[in-house]
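Reviewers of the previous submission asked for a worked example of the structure-prediction workflow described in the proposal, so we include one complete record here. The input consisted solely of the amino acid sequence. No template or homolog information was supplied to the procedure at any stage.
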Amino acid sequence: MSKASLFQLEYIIFDFETTGLNADKDDDIIEIGALKLKGSEPTGEVFETLVRPSKKIPLKVSQVHGITDKDVENKPTIEEIFPKFMSFIGNKILVAHNAEFDLSFIKKYLKRFTQFPFNNSCIDTLQLSRQLYSYEKGHSLSAIASRFEIRKKVDRHRSLGDCYLTAEIFSEMLKTLKRRKLDMLHHIKSCIFLPPPRIAVEALTQEPLRLL
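From that input alone, the workflow returned the following structure tokens.
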């Protein structure tokens, strides 16, 4: 694992809204949000789109994120969007909150679109919060934002809104790591999903690596 400073790396913060929680069954992505960071600073480059799923959006799911069947009826399909998303993320380090969930959908579509390599590491801010602030009870995005007194007005439970909030939280976590002199990538390896080269799809099923 690289010993690069976390403040010198480039990241893609990303988030999906979906029709449900189970990528292994028939749930689909209905919104993708992503933004680029250089160190802890946003570059201004964003990726945002609604996606037309292969199934109806359950009412209880629409009540969470506010996305309805009407919102997505004329939007591009995942077949059209996935290549563009993969191009946007490139080989950057990914960052997501509860990354295992979002990675499960990437894994699903990689099985369908086998032409795309995927060797990206992914930092999980949920695991990072649990490691850095183990004495705290809550590690949801809302709980962490409240703890850091982040009052950024975003559309919660919408992909890009959650990306902006995750970016703010990640920036605060980087400051904590720097204060503790743990600001190198290998210091947080227990919070990283790290697919090995050329076997990335299978590797996405593994648990995050743990510090001994």
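The first strand starts at residue 10 and ends at 18. We consider this example representative of the routine output the project will generate in years two and three.
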